[in-house]
Amino acid sequence: MPESLTSREKQAIATKKRIYRCGVELIKKYGYDNITVKEIAEKANVSIGNYYHYFKSKYDLLVEIFKHGDEFFEAEVPKILDEYKDCKDILVQYFLVYARLSINDGVEMAKNLYIPTNKMFLTHGRSMQNMLIQIIKNEQEKGKIPNTLDCEEITEKLFIVARGVIFDWCLKDGKTDLLAEMKEIISRMVESYIKK
């Protein structure tokens, strides 16, 4: 935390982080649909009113979880772009970041996020999507991916496939090599978009 923050501001940040952490723990254990704001507040040792001071609803906690995912991408994707120059390598490495995000969160969290009622996956304009759209546009400008293909549609299709790989990992209780599976399947998918 920056030194310029007052002790009250530092305490507010710590409280929000505690509520977030406790909410994540409960989601991992019971699933998002099976917990209440009251339970999150009790676990975080704050009042329900205090919870609502930091999060407008239970759904806002889910939004925060996905925001952390976007921040992970914002930190990792520039490293890929510095290291890799080949179109296929960039796109495959991009989705290995996605796999690592799930591994970091843990299979129990993934099991509770990769469910049909979680509409956050349908949210457009998120940072991780926008980064991939820009990568695809750049590759189209280089002539690696046909300009006749819509980069937003390619992005959506690649994410559908990647979510399927992660869902399969969840079904198998995390006992498969998620990175190897993601690399193999996304590689095949990416090849279908790259100019021969």
TrEMBL record:
InterPro entries: Homeodomain-like_sf, HTH-type_Tx_Regulator, HTH_TetR, Tet_transcr_reg_TetR-rel_C_sf. It comes from the Bacteria. SUPFAM superfamilies: Homeodomain-like (SSF46689), Tetracyclin repressor-like, C-terminal domain (SSF48498). Keywords: DNA-binding. Transmembrane segments: none annotated. GO terms for molecular function: DNA binding. Residues 13-73 form the HTH tetR-type domain. Residues 36-55 bind DNA. Pfam families: TetR_N (PF00440). PROSITE patterns: HTH_TETR_2 (PS50977). The keyword Membrane does not apply. This is Transcriptional regulator, TetR family. It comes from Thermoanaerobacterium thermosaccharolyticum (strain ATCC 7956 / DSM 571 / NCIMB 9385 / NCA 3814 / NCTC 13789 / WDCM 00135 / 2032).
